Amino acid sequence: MAMSVGESDDEVMSDINTTPLVDVMLVLLIIFLITIPVVTHTVPLQLPKERVHPLQTQPKSIEIAVNRDGDVFWNEARVDAPTLLARLKAASVSTPQPEVHVRGDQETRYEFIGRVITACERAGIAKVSFITQPPARGE
Fold it and tell me: Most C-beta atoms within 10 A of its C-beta, which of 42, 52, 78, 92?
């Protein structure tokens, strides 16, 4: 049986026991000291210095503009809806598939932009982006 002198049994011990922490740190230190020489013993090589060139060429993107009246332009040439769909279908089968960039006038109704997006979807175009202009400073 243990006997306590001058302390009550209900008193909480406020000291931190650091013995387990020191034990863990010593084990980690020994592990690192053992594994560091293994990591540094490699075959000395002079690796070639080459610049990496991409193997896949980026296709030219397709620019589609929609003015405020709803007229659609394919790379600055006006096209109607059936011609737009036919051209998009022809572009969608090329490898790699080009991206479509849609530029719409600020005053264009969403309906006209939606028709272009629907045509892209029907043609199987995977990437469609909207081109915007950043606001001027102070706006």
Answer: 92
pLDDT tens per residue, range 30-81: 988 887 776 665 566 565 565 655 545 466 888 999 998 889 999 888 999 9
Quick check: is 88 in a domain? yes
In a domain, 109, yes or no: yes
Q: Which of 96, 108, 33, 24 is nearest to 66 (CA)?
A: 108
Buried b (16+ CB within 10 A) or exposed e, 102-128: bbbeeebeeebbebbbebbeebebeee
CA 104 to CA 121: how far, in whole Å?
A: 17
Q: How many distinct structural domains can be found in the chain?
A: 1
Indicate whether this model's pTM tops 0.70: no
Q: Which of 80, 79, 70 is nearest to 109 (CA)?
A: 70
Q: How far are the Cα atoms of 12, 30, 33, 46 from residue 19, in angstroms, in the given order?
A: 19, 17, 21, 47
Name the residue range of residue 88's domain: 74-130
